[in-house]
Automatic annotation (TrEMBL):
This protein's name: dTDP-glucose 4,6-dehydratase
EC number: 4.2.1.46
Gene that encodes it: rfbB
Species, as recorded: Paenibacillus glycinis
Cofactors named for this entry: NAD(+)
InterPro entries xrefs: dTDP_Gluc_deHydtase, NAD(P)-bd_dom, NAD(P)-bd_dom_sf
Family: Belongs to the NAD(P)-dependent epimerase/dehydratase family. dTDP-glucose dehydratase subfamily.
Reaction(s) the record says it catalyses: dTDP-alpha-D-glucose = dTDP-4-dehydro-6-deoxy-alpha-D-glucose + H2O
The entry's keywords: Lyase, NAD
Length: 335
């Protein structure tokens, strides 16, 4: 299978590339990524020489630059490429609309023209909006996005659906809850709090710290996408979640405990505008129909993740300094 993976230099995309090369060495992976601030080839250094792996620097809104990739007879497109951080979307929505909506539509057009066998859109539970104290998001929960980020992802999901309904493009959409694990950019809750705690800096907790997220280890998400690629029924949406609801204070306290740092580092700051209170996923469809099971337990997974960041401080420093871009220029010439 020849697979075009977009956004493969980001957090989940790079974990997915590692996962696929390990689990399916017979497949060919073409990683198309424009290397925004969130894309980091350091995440893929261990696989860059693999004969069945190729990296191409390309923006998913650039149709003509993408065309030669599709001319290589792509079987499957997996679209991870996105602007992914809610806080940035509040400051600068334009790029979210451009990449997440226009970029997805550009890929859909090419997938249609070149008759790919499957198009998998990696989406998010945030398209469903927010939950109160009870209930779970199912695949039939109405879309009710609350941030510019989630609105742009919801727009993309509807385009994916439309290309299936209107043009018969074989698609799937996966909607996953919060991922944690190696290679996450330190603007997101877990790596940010680890970094701040290590430097004895304040840990900025939004609002009352009681917003709830449903945490899933990134490799379990990769496994779910792999199953959907191979066995997902055409046109279907699959929710993916770890059944690990934790509020933000619980997550932050675990990090402090594991690092032996005091709770006095916690600082309550102004809440995120439009901050969704609670996300929780009903993953029974992917479990029963595709036999997906998460392998990682949150309690051990979070400790393993904290240790990963501890033993990969050089990676973290490079990401923070943007030093990986120098490496890219050395490897691939001019940007
Ligand atoms: P990320 O921000 O870490 O990585 C995004 C990647 O996309 C980067 O490598 C970046 O360079 C690339 N990219 C951005 N704009 C691009 C463009 N115009 N053209 C080509 N490449 C571009 O994001 P992530 O956390 O790995 O998320 C990956 C996908 O999964 C996103 O679509 C996101 O919406 C979705 N998702 C994320 C989570 C999560 O918890 N992180 C949960 C559910 C769904
Ligand atoms: O639910 C899936 C989504 O999870 C993905 O679609 C997004 O791409 C991903 O970024 C993530 O969104 P969140 O907004 O849930 O993740 P974030 O790490 O930004 O925040 C997690 C929670 O922690 C949220 O309630 C806000 C809070 N928070 C976050 C930061 C960065 C803080 O309290 N302080 C912080 O400094």
């Amino acid at each position: 299978m020849r697979m075009l993976v977009t956004g493969g230099a980001g957090f989940i995309g790079s974990n997915f590339v590692h996962y696929m090369l390990r689990e399916h060495p017979e497949d060919i992976i073409i990683n198309a990524d424009s290397l925004t601030y969130a894309g980091n080839l350091e995440n893929l250094r261990a696989v860059e020489q693999e004969p069945n792996y190729q990296f191409v620097r390309v923006d998913i809104t650039d149709r003509e630059a993408l065309r030669p990739l599709f001319e290589q007879e792509i079987d499957v497109v997996v679209n991870f490429a996105a602007e992914s951080h809610v806080d940035r979307s509040i400051l600068e929505p334009d790029v979210f609309v451009r990449t997440n909506i226009l970029g997805t539509q550009t890929l859909l057009d090419l997938a249609k023209e070149f008759k790919v066998r499957k198009f998998v859109q990696v989406s998010t539970d945030e398209v469903y909006g927010t939950l109160g104290d009870t209930g779970l998001f199912s695949e039939t929960t109405p879309l009710a996005a609350n941030s510019p980020y989630s609105a742009s992802k919801a727009g993309a999901d509807l385009l994916v659906r439309a290309y299936h309904e209107t043009f018969g493009l074989p698609v799937n959409i996966t909607r996953c809850s919060n991922n944690y694990g190696p290679y996450q950019f330190p603007e997101k809750l877990i790596p940010l709090m680890i970094q701040n705690a290590l430097a004895d800096k304040q840990l900025p907790v939004y609002g009352d710290g009681l917003n709830v997220r449903d945490w899933l280890y990134v490799e379990d998400h990769c496994k779910a996408i792999d199953l959907v690629i191979r066995e997902g029924a055409t046109g279907e949406v699959y929710n993916v979640g770890g059944n690990n609801e934790r509020n933000n204070l619980q997550v932050v306290r675990t990090i402090l405990q594991e690092l032996g740092k005091p709770e006095s580092l916690i600082t309550y700051v102004t809440d995120r505008p439009g901050h969704d209170r609670r996300y929780a996923i009903d993953a029974s469809k992917i479990r029963t129909q595709l036999g997906w099971q998460p392998k990682y337990n949150y309690e051990s997974g979070i400790v393993e993740t904290i240790r990963w960041y501890l033993s990969n401080q050089a990676w973290m420093e490079q990401v923070k300094s943007g030093g990986y871009r120098d490496y890219y220029e050395m490897q691939y010439g001019e940007r």
